[in-house]
Design a protein that fits this description.
It is built from 12 helices and 13 strands. By secondary structure, it is of the alpha/beta class. A hairpin with a 4-residue loop joins strand 8 and strand 9.
């Protein structure tokens, strides 16, 4: 009779070893999980015969591993590809946690639950191809703390996406940075589907493909999901389904077109991906997923109003149309002039995003409701002249003590960690204006790039008298006051 090691994996990924158990114990665990009223279910290890996981509603994961099984590495490094003539050289590939050159997207979603050690993949193989999102389902219940237990399972079998989402609790979990690859897709021959495109953001949603999770679900009431959608849009992922709506499961079918997958950006189902055979996420409502109501009833036929909301696809990175120009013109008239150095134009810019976010915050909105991408309500307030105007800029106060604390905390932490983002941000913006910091690193985190830029300010701009340890990139009051005087903020001890 087979003997098993028994262990419990906790939500923080710590493991409690419980000793050895016999086959009868494992069979009993299976039988209990099979009872419909029991909030547990089982999963086999996909590549370790006999290894069983019991996923629990309380967030713990029971793990049974046959005694005497060959030792194995659960999370072997996902190495970068060798340099090729049609891809970046090794020197061009970003390191773990770094933004690729020219990136402007969200890397870590604010408020997401961190799962694992934050390292799951590596650089994209085809960063010149369009960005995309892939939707999966976990084939499990939702609610409770299944997010943690399923997250632990995905870590143990090395099949992590970047994100996991619970549609019942609206909780978001994140395994790794959005600008690097996940590990939830099979390769398509020698082509690594996990590394396709500028980004390939994979989302495991708690639910079952046979029972679409978007039923009786309203994205307008789910700020966690709206954060996911805003993060995808920040990378330029279009609000489109290039391969069509996800097919019904079971019984549906998909062509899994290589041409569509490799050459078009947007949202894809796991069922659309070449080289894969899964049918998830089932016939989910694509309009709800993209932030709409999901109501497919045709509206009465009537002439389109020139003031009608043109749709989310008209705005965001890559947009270039008359609606963007009109948006900028309206924002300037409502107090947003300071965001535009050359006035409104048709090509979407960071000025449009910042001015839109400022207008949204002026209405008292926050979080995903003030992400800088106009929705129907934002547009309606602007075209009708209603709502509150963007308030005049106030001079921000930045504390040296807070900057020093941020440097000590943010530099050793994972990328995207912030300590005093509201005070780090104006310093980073000033360093960008001085030509010392690339705009992509002005994210409110006092990381190594910010420290290097501030050291350059100390050496070359802050009076020219800082050298050696005095130019270590950690702000002092004198150097900060000189920077503040040039960039409209106040420096305090």
């Amino acid at each position: 009779m087979t003997t098993f090691h028994a262990a419990v994996v906790h939500p923080d990924q710590s493991v409690t070893y419980c000793g050895e158990v016999d086959q009868e114990h494992v069979d009993e665990a299976r039988a209990i999980a099979a009872i419909e009223a029991t909030p547990r279910f089982t999963r086999e290890h996909p590549s370790r015969p006999g290894s069983l996981f019991v996923l629990r509603e309380d967030g713990d994961l029971d793990w049974y591993e046959p005694v005497g099984a060959e030792p194995f590495i659960v999370r072997a490094p996902d190495t970068d590809p060798p340099a090729r003539a049609d891809s970046p050289t090794a020197d061009d590939l970003p390191g773990a946690g770094e933004l690729p050159r020219g990136a402007t997207g969200t890397v870590w979603i604010s408020g997401a639950i961190r799962l694992g050690d934050g390292v799951i993949g590596g650089a994209m193989d085809t960063p010149g191809n369009p960005p995309r999102v892939v939707h999966h389902t976990t084939e499990s219940p939702a609610g409770g703390k299944y997010l943690e237990s399923i997250g632990s399972y995905l870590i143990r079998v090395a099949s992590e996406p970047q994100l996991i989402y619970c549609p019942v609790t609206d909780r978001v979990g994140q395994f790794g940075p959005l600008n690097q690859s996940g590990r939830a897709l099979r390769n398509d021959g020698s082509r690594r589907t996990n590394r396709e495109g500028r980004v390939c953001i994979q989302i495991e949603v708690l639910g079952r493909a046979a029972q679409p999770w978007t039923t009786n679900w309203d994205s307008g009431k789910k700020p966690g999901w709206r954060k996911i959608l805003a993060a995808a849009r920040s990378w330029g992922v279009p609000d489109a389904w290039p391969a069509g709506a996800p097919p019904k499961y079971p019984g549906g079918s998909s062509a899994r077109s290589r041409s569509t997958w490799q050459n078009k950006g947007g949202h894809f189902a796991h069922a659309h991906i070449p080289g894969n055979d899964h049918g998830d996420p089932g016939a989910v409502d694509t309009r709800k997923i993209l932030g709409g109501s999901g109501d497919t009833t045709p509206a009465p036929s009537k002439p389109a109003s020139k003031d009608a909301f043109p749709g989310a696809g008209a705005f965001g990175p890559g947009a270039n149309n008359a609606h963007v120009t009109r948006l900028g013109t309206m924002l300037i008239a409502r107090g947003g002039k300071r965001f535009y150095s050359v006035g409104a134009g048709p090509r979407w810019s960071d000025a449009d995003r910042k001015a839109t976010a400022a207008f949204q915050r002026a209405q008292g909105w926050s979080g995903a409701d003030a992400d800088g991408i106009p929705g129907p309500t934002t547009w309606d307030l602007l075209v009708t002249g209603r709502g509150k105007n963007i308030p005049a800029a106030t001079k921000r106060t930045v504390s040296v003590a807070h900057l020093v604390a941020a440097a000590k905390a943010d530099i050793p932490a994972p990328d995207g960690h912030t300590t005093h983002p509201g005070e780090v941000a104006p310093v980073e913006q000033a360093l960008v204006a001085e030509g010392l910091l690339d705009r992509q690193y002005a994210d409110g985190s006092f990381g190594t790039k910010t420290r290097t830029a501030y050291a350059a300010w100390q050496r070359s701009k802050a009076g020219g008298s800082y050298t050696g340890a005095a130019a270590d990139g950690i702000p002092g009051l004198a150097s900060l006051k000189r920077l503040a005087a040039r960039h409209n903020f106040t420096a305090t001890p």
